[in-house]
Amino acid sequence: MITSLINEQLICLNLAASSKEEVFSEMARLLARQGRIGDERQFVADLWERESLGNTGFEEGVALPHAKSAAVLQPAVAIGISRAGIDYGAEDGQPSHLFFMIASPAGGADHHIEVLAELSTKLIEEGFIARLLRATTPADALAMLLEGKQDRAIDKVADQGFLIGVTGCPTGVAHTYLAAEALEQAAAELGYQIKVETNGSIGVRNSPSAEEIARASAIVVACDRQVDLSRFAGKPLIETSVKAPIKDGKGVIQQALKAPAYVASQGDKPTEKPRAGRSDLYRFLMNGVSHMIPFVVTGGLLIALSLAIGGHPTPNGMQIPEGSMWNQILNVGVVAFKLMIPILAGYIAYAIADRPALAPGFIGGWIANDGSFYGADAGTGFIGAIIAGLLVGYLVRWIATRRYHKMVQPLVPILIAPITASLFIAAVFIFIIGAPIADMMAGLNALLLSMSGGSLVLLGIVLGGMAGFDMGGPVNKVAFLFSVGMIASGQTQFMGAMACAIPVAPLGMGLATVLGRKLNLFDKSEIEAGKAAAAMGLVGISEGAIPFAARDPLAVIPANVLGSMVAAVMAFLLGITNSVAHGGPIVALLGAMNKPLLALLCMLTGAVITGIAAVALKKGRMSRSAALA
């Protein structure tokens, strides 16, 4: 990774700066001159925002300022050396001389974390920092960075046993990987094999298996954030700060080898209080979305495959012969689709309050997605799942932090919290949220009926907007069921407009991932989800766009609504009809629509508008957020 992000022109061996502010400005200019950032002021502001989470000055005169920023055009690492030293606010109180400034695009891959992990292996090397500070030319400095990791003379063969380490710092960045490297080197010098789990800001990596835990001689938990310690029950274990192995890796390991066996208890709690705020909320949502995506992709593609190969258009929709192989495949896909909304809610709750929130989160998500609990024709969809997950998570967290008698405490995570939260979320949807949703659906249906004889443009705007709003949720369902009902009365133009609007959201988001790739607006998982969404869109499965809407509703939902509106209005104006209760290009290609080529044009136009709008809105929101930082 380092080799692709740094060159000689990004290395300054004699910084003129005399303060932290001047270091940021001077090195930002260096990045700007190389075309790596487009807005120096914005990037510097993002650096300071990162500093507010914790000072990036470390021991031995090293500082690692870094930021994910919309100002970054291309990921890069700039290196600066101050001969006189800068008062950077380092943890050891000493001046900082060596600066690694890491620029990573906002919304892109976590380049800064990957680089920090790679730099850790160099910074831990004995004498590396001193050698780098003595470099006389940028070429010499670059050569030192790119040279292979030094082979250290190990007197002992690694046959003393097997160890497990766990590292993590509050922000999940530099110390996490520095501590992991220090443990690995110390273990090798003592003759032990070791596997180190890192709990960084890009997630948990390199977790030990049950078999590895079983054969471990000792466990070193050098972590300042919450980790699951119960899995290490019965093993010699020490808990210490993430800085401890960096200062004395051998000593920490020797303490662990002499430590008593760990006994799991209710004391397995976070060592840091979770910080509230937008970043936490985003992390909770992402946990739900990341677990939901496999269900969306699996279910959507199985349904798409079965409809495309085994389906036939009928007045009641795309039908697959009962008892056929494709019907069974369809049923498997439907199961995955039924599970995806509870999965979203469950893992949002889990991210907030851990395992006690998992069951009530699933239950709340299922109730939210099943309108029969509260007398509605359709559930609340992914919006309801997000509400359920957040409510359950915060309730369980509150319950778990109360003081209980020692006889009651063990029952809290397995009985009290799950049951209380399950009853609470069921009551919220059945008695509070459910009735308004049912009334809303009835009101929307009445609105569509009252508009059915009016302006086609206005009707297309309303019908298309409803189709693109929640992708299979209650608003979408009202528009769909209204259009299906109009088929029975011989007015197939409504279903024609709906059929053109249905695939716009998934097709548009699939296109957006292609358009936004060079702008680093989507990560790898979203790009893969975009391919699946496009495939679902071809057979009229609007749920393919849900992961994108759940992750960034303020950008994705307006884009979906706009494109769907355009597609529906065009369909009405072009006189497109559809006698089948389904939508998407597959319906047009199978002959259920009177003007298939024009219908495809409507769908394509709407998808293009959605894709362009989504990219523009995401880019705009990202730039505004960075500017306000």
TrEMBL record:
CDD domains tied to this protein: PTS_IIA_fru, PTS_IIB_fructose
Catalysed reaction, written as an equation: D-fructose(out) + N(pros)-phospho-L-histidyl-[protein] = D-fructose 1-phosphate(in) + L-histidyl-[protein]
Domain PTS EIIA type-2: 4-149
GO cellular component, as recorded: cytoplasm; plasma membrane
PROSITE patterns: PTS_EIIA_TYPE_2, PTS_EIIB_TYPE_2, PTS_EIIC_TYPE_2
Assigned keywords, A-Z: Cell membrane, Kinase, Membrane, Phosphoprotein, Phosphotransferase system, Sugar transport, Transferase, Transmembrane, Transmembrane helix, Transport
Segments forming domain PTS EIIB type-2: 163-258
Parts of the chain that traverse the membrane: 284-309, 329-350, 382-400, 412-438, 444-467, 479-512, 557-577, 597-617
Domain (PTS EIIC type-2) ranges: 281-616
InterPro entries recorded: Bacterial_PTS_Sugar_Transport, PTrfase/Anion_transptr, PTS_EIIA_type-2_dom, PTS_EIIB-like_sf, PTS_EIIB_2, PTS_EIIB_2/3, PTS_EIIC, PTS_EIIC_2
EC number of this enzyme: 2.7.1.202
A biological process term (GO) from this entry: phosphoenolpyruvate-dependent sugar phosphotransferase system
GO molecular function: carbohydrate:proton symporter activity; kinase activity; protein-N(PI)-phosphohistidine-fructose phosphotransferase system transporter activity; protein-phosphocysteine-sugar phosphotransferase activity
Membrane protein topology class: Multi-pass membrane protein
Superkingdom to which the source organism belongs: Bacteria
Location in or out of the cell: Cell inner membrane; Cytoplasm
Family matches, as Pfam families: PTS_EIIA_2, PTS_EIIC, PTS_IIB
Protein name according to UniProt: protein-N(pi)-phosphohistidine--D-fructose phosphotransferase
